[in-house]
Design goal:
Length: 259
């Protein structure tokens, strides 16, 4: 019997060994350090372009220590995970956007077919990210953020019937939590119950506080937040008006992803 390989983990380990811009490398040269700064600058520019292109309910902020770590949260409003606020961190390889698979690890335990119950890492292979020579596509961050949100609404399209798919000539498993898969198929009520436990844990975690390294922080609501909220609402209304004017001038209907 052929044992399926965990290509996601192999890719990550391989990428770390061969990453010339790994900040933890003892033999990093001034040239490598310069290249790393250029890489972080390009990531910052890509982050800037995401403003009006990312799915609603998904928020990401680059890390304080390194732009190769992005801290995010996804708010879920419908389905089995409704009410959840799941925090995650994206680790971007130094070879991005030419090659290398990123990793996405959630801060809390999530009962999900595509999330490893031991490491809390999301299986990214079903997303089919363009991790090899994406060329002028500008990388895969938009597609990755879309995938992170969609797995909480339509996760079955990424694993149902694809448990033994092939990639790079090897068999891989889309499912990394077989218990979640079995319950989803055989007992939906128990599956929903386990999902609700994940939702509660995510909300409890919000009360405790964030990872000290995280650049995405939450705290108790204060009166000063009212001012920020009003500015955001006014800004949203003005953007909507401008969008309507653009559609009106072009005589068409533009479809944008919202932040």
């Amino acid at each position: 019997m052929i044992r399926p390989r965990n290509l996601a983990k192999e890719s990550l380990n391989s990428g770390r060994k061969n990453d010339p811009l790994d900040e933890n490398r003892e033999d990093m040269t001034p040239s490598d350090s310069y290249k790393r700064k250029l890489k972080e600058y390009s990531l910052l520019m890509e982050y800037k372009t995401l403003r009006n292109r990312v799915e609603s309910g998904v928020y990401v902020v680059p890390g304080f220590e390194s732009l190769l770590s992005w801290y995010g949260i996804v708010f879920i409003h419908e389905g089995e995970y409704a009410g959840g606020a799941f925090k995650f961190v994206i680790k971007i390889p130094g070879t991005y956007p030419v090659s290398g698979m990123p990793t996405v690890q959630f801060e809390t335990n999530i009962f999900h077919p595509l999330i490893d119950p031991k490491t809390r890492e999301l299986n990214l292979f079903p997303a089919e990210l363009p991790t090899e020579n994406p060329g002028a596509t500008g990388g895969y961050m938009i597609k990755l953020l879309y995938y992170i949100k969609e797995i909480f609404y339509f996760h079955d399209i990424y694993w149902n019937g694809k448990e033994d798919s092939k990639r790079e000539g090897h068999r891989i498993n889309a499912v990394v939590n077989s218990t979640a898969t079995s319950l989803y198929i055989s007992d939906m009520e128990k599956f929903k119950l386990r999902c609700s436990e994940s939702v509660r844990e995510s909300l409890d975690r919000m009360k405790v506080g964030s990872d000290p390294q995280s650049s995405l922080r939450f705290g108790p609501y204060m009166d000063s937040h009212d001012v920020v909220r009003d500015k955001i609402l006014r800004s949203g209304k003005s953007n909507e008006v401008r969008s309507r004017r653009v559609r009106s001038k072009k005589g068409g209907n533009l479809s944008y992803l919202t932040w």
